[in-house]
Amino acid sequence: MDAEKNYLVGIFDDEDVLVSGVTSIREKGVKIHEVYSPFPVHGLDEVLGYKRSRLPIAAFMFGMTGTSLALLMQIWMLGYDWPMIIGGKNFVSLPPFIPVTFELTVLLSALGMVATFMIVSDLKPYRWPRQFDLRSTDDKHVMAIDLALNHGKSKSEITSILKAAGATEVNEKNFE
């Protein structure tokens, strides 16, 4: 884990003020670490400059893996390892395989997406997440600015930029 991290935390009351504040803060050259909100804010990911998530691609790949494994397993089990006559046919018949194939596709897709999300989000069972302000889960929007990423700007300058952008309060948060 990182050594000591110092952040300035801006608290916003309104989501419209937050979105316009993010735009003005980024235009002034301040690098924003993260913005936390109690509910989804439309357009916030665009003004923060986030790219589209690749999680649907991972979900498709996990689903295809589930489909392939289900068909391979059933064809092997019922066609070669222990052949059975199903529906009067003594060879592999695909229609009875559809329910199991569907279920394994959904199972592997869901488990793979959860695992991928946890890895990408750096969520580990032995590590507590950083909580910048407890009100971010209730009714406030919180913008965290890492002071180490903003070399050319002082703490007081970033504080005044946050206040001008509409932050109702600015606090300093240290993590050790």
Automatic annotation (TrEMBL):
Recorded superkingdom: Bacteria
InterPro entries from the UniProt entry: ActD
Pfam family name, one: ActD
Keyword set, alphabetical order: Membrane, Transmembrane, Transmembrane helix
Segments crossing the lipid bilayer: 57-77, 97-120
Name of protein: Quinol:cytochrome c oxidoreductase membrane protein
